[in-house]
Amino acid sequence: MLTYLIRRIAIIIPTLFFVSIIIFGLQQLLPGDPALALAGEERDPQVIAFLRHKYHLDEPLPVRYGLWLGGVLHGDLGESIRINKPVLDLVLEKLPVTAELAGMAILVALLIGIPAGVISAVKNGTFIDYGANVFALWGLSTPNFWLGFLLILLFSVDLGVLPASGFVPPGEDLGQNLATLVMPAFVLGNAIAAVMMRHTRSAMLQVLSADYVRTARAKGLEERTVVLKHGLRNALIPVVTLGALEFGQLLSGAVLTEQVFTIPGFGKLIVDAVFNRDYAVVQGVVLCTATAFIVLNLCADIAYFLVNPRLRA
Amino acid sequence: MTAIPVDAATSAPELPDDRPWRRALRRLVRRRGAMVGLSAVLFFVLIAIFAPYVAPYSPVATDWGAVRKAPSLAHWLGTDEIGRDVLSRVIFGARASLMAGVVSVLISLSLGVPLGLLSGYVGGFLDGLLMRIVDAMLACPFLILAIALAAFLGPNLTNAMIAIGISAMPAFVRLTRAQTLATKVEDYVEAAKAVGNPHHRIVLRHILPNILAPIMVQATLAIAAAIIAEASLSFLGLGQQPPAPSWGSMLNTAKNFLSQAPWMAWWPGAAIFVVVLSFNLLGDGLRDALDPKHK
Predict the structure, then answer these.
(1) What predicted TM-score, i.e. pTM, was given to this entire model?
(2) Complex-level ipTM
(3) Which of residues 236 through 265 in chain B touch A, CB cutoff 8 A?
(4) pLDDT in tens, A172-183
(5) Is A4 on the interface with B (CB under 8 A)?
(6) In angstroms, how far is CA B259 from the centroid of its own chain?
């Protein structure tokens, strides 16, 4: 166990190192003088000289990388040139909003994807299985933002039952908070539900043909018990760990969903930063998402290792 | 021991051509979903090529007398906020979307396949180094990396395609490497080495042709993802720039007129959905047809 953990954590260090190089390298893609790009509309030579000195643009590239990495390791992701706030503060400010949206989206994905996958596997080859596969293809092919528009048209414009945009913090009004997040969570959870359904279906098909399931049936157990207790419990192990890999998709989807529903979260932060040419914020957001993704994958791998006795043998 | 008469051997009935590719093609043709997907893809390709002949109006021609008009006989899918014909823009928008899908995947393939072959075939330190870089790229969520790349490169369709191509590349490196690792220990590769073939010949003539099937499947599915990514970047204003039409940028404009002119949002979104669904159906069909376990 300890050897596995050490080996797994050892792989993370070079990965994080290369993530930092990629993110630092993004700034080098800026055409022309980075100081001019950072200054935006400002053309005052003093301001440009100040920016060049502040961001060490007059230093050689490896020195700049070292300084930037040193700052990152001390929790300094730079400062937003538009909002004049540390990037880390901005990220931490927006994180709870996106985390709530992502949590609700995962709930939607689990509630739709897992039952659909189980039913599809149990009814393999029937019309129901075909319908579930059509649902999965629909979920994978529908652009998030378009589905958002369709839901707004139906539930906000035509029926007038849900707010089309905005966000109310849960501490302020929980009912209103949930009302603002129902549609975005469905939009975001829909595509992940389709992936979950496919994973669950294939894992269940594999488990249901295993010898121990045949034995459970031969003992005369009810089909419901066989499917839920012997089938689903074992099939869920790979599904949950594979689900962790969908975290990236969740964050990518959140960018678009937050834009459609005007939710002031992580996704909106990066899009606004792009248009404000606030490059430190863009780098900070990418760094935080990549680090979160790596840590989550580590947790998923460890969880898989812990719950799967065959790996421990 | 009886000798086989020469005429009997030559007159034996010819075996049907049963090469793996032909078997896969036969299996693909039998899959209704894949054929529907292929037909729809071909339909959109033809629409994109012949857009100037098919579209009833110019995609950029404005008509201030027909601003935000609902679908009618004159404008089948309605008009937008400055009186441009939505149908014509959807038709011309197919060019940007399909081009972005194909070009992005070509970029991913041209970078990812050689790197994957190199990594898998050479192995050792180079493999470890390349895999850590790929891990690092995979750790950055696909669209967020594409947004960041497009933001730093500058917002236009070419840079969006480059951003999507680079962001989608790691999946091809991983896939090609895994296939190369499995193939390089096959007997026929060992035999090719034993007779003294140079490394480049072994890789290009003996390994690459045998790993093309899964790469093709991945490429088809990646086109679908790239089309959605291009639409997403254009929706955010980082792809095709106005007034040139693209489905994503049409949806970006439509979001400001959802209650007054919902048709501005319906059709470009439906076009993205249908073309992505078609590529997914085709990709799924190809995967099943090329998998020897599926009969």
Answers:
(1) 0.88
(2) 0.87
(3) 236-238, 251, 254-255, 258-259, 262, 265
(4) 999 999 999 999
(5) no
(6) 34
